[in-house]
Specification:
Oligomer: single chain
Mean pLDDT: 97
Number of helices: 9
Strand content: 25-35%
Largest sheet: 7 strands, mixed
Shape: globular
Number of strands: 15
Low-confidence stretches: none
Helix content: 10-25%
Radius of gyration: 18 Å
Distance between the termini: 12 Å
Strand order of the largest sheet: 9-10-11-12-13-14-15
């Protein structure tokens, strides 16, 4: 098995929204803001090459939205999952599986694209099986008013109508062991219903794709919770349990949205779980 980090684009989000009730004077120490109060955010995906499978975890925003839409997010740097795949010698047609942690547009937008004449949407990865879970899929299709702007119908319906969609079975204790793609999944409900956090063994280490359970290294402290989360008190409980486990077992945490830190580890301290170390992917693997 081989793993490849894919930066499929960078953008900016409001720092206040990203840190909820935490004052700017505190969060700006780890995540400095520009003159518009915007902080740098990455769209970092993970590619897994395993035997005859090429599995993509999340896909970024994609490029099919309007210029007005993208202007809200101040995109910067090179964009696009196809470009990122090509850096490792792969094309979008090589991808056999697309695992979507959840269906917010910045995680799944790149999984659907315009056709050549921009008259209809099509799967970006035409040879791939797309993976979600039933509970989250229904949650997204029947979105509450708070999240509706994050669940775009053009990201959801083409996948469902394609016949390429399959679901991971959720687990009562939160952990689904050895899912069909060969890794474990932790189901988290604070950010959105049944967000999926992949956990895998690689080169004798445990790597966790943190998605929006832990957006950046600046969010390690338990009260540092995004204003976007639908159930922040549940996020608090999930973060505490997961980060305590990560500190105890020395997990390596793959940061999807941290523009500066690819992988971090955490440790126990007198003040609770805190950041231990930050690494580039290549320095660890």
């Amino acid at each position: 098995m081989k793993l490849y980090p894919l930066n499929v684009g960078n953008f900016k989000l409001d720092g206040g929204a990203m840190f909820g009730v935490v004052p700017k004077s505190i969060w700006s120490k780890t995540n400095p803001a520009d003159h518009n109060n915007m902080i740098d955010i990455a769209a970092r995906c993970l590619l897994i090459e395993n035997d005859n499978r090429l599995i993509l975890i999340d896909s970024g925003m994609g490029n099919k939205q309007s210029e007005k839409f993208f202007n809200y997010y101040y995109r910067w740097g090179e964009q696009g999952v196809e470009r990122a795949l090509a850096q490792y010698g792969f094309s979008k047609d090589d991808v056999t599986d697309v695992f979507l942690t959840h269906l917010h547009f910045d995680h799944c937008g790149g999984a659907v694209e315009w056709n050549n004449d921009r008259t209809a949407y099509q799967l970006t990865f035409k040879n791939a099986t797309y993976w979600s879970n039933k509970e989250h899929w229904q949650w997204a299709k029947n979105a509450n008013k708070r999240e509706k702007a994050s669940f775009l119908i053009e990201n959801i319906e083409p996948i469902e109508q394609s016949g390429h969609l399959k679901h991971i079975a959720s687990a009562e204790n939160g952990f689904a062991r050895n899912c069909p793609l060969g890794f474990d999944v932790f189901f988290a409900n604070g950010h959105t219903e049944k967000q999926m956090i992949p956990i895998m063994k690689y080169k004798e280490k445990t790597l966790c794709f943190m998605a929006d359970l832990l957006p950046t290294a600046g969010h390690v402290s338990l009260p540092f919770i995004m204003g976007y989360d639908t159930r922040p008190l549940i996020t608090l409980e999930e973060k505490e349990a997961f980060l305590n486990l990560a500190a105890k077992e020395n997990y390596y945490l793959f940061m999807e949205h941290d523009a500066r830190n690819e992988i971090i580890t955490v440790k126990h301290s007198e003040k609770g779980v805190r950041l231990n170390s930050s690494h580039s992917f290549n320095s660890i693997f």
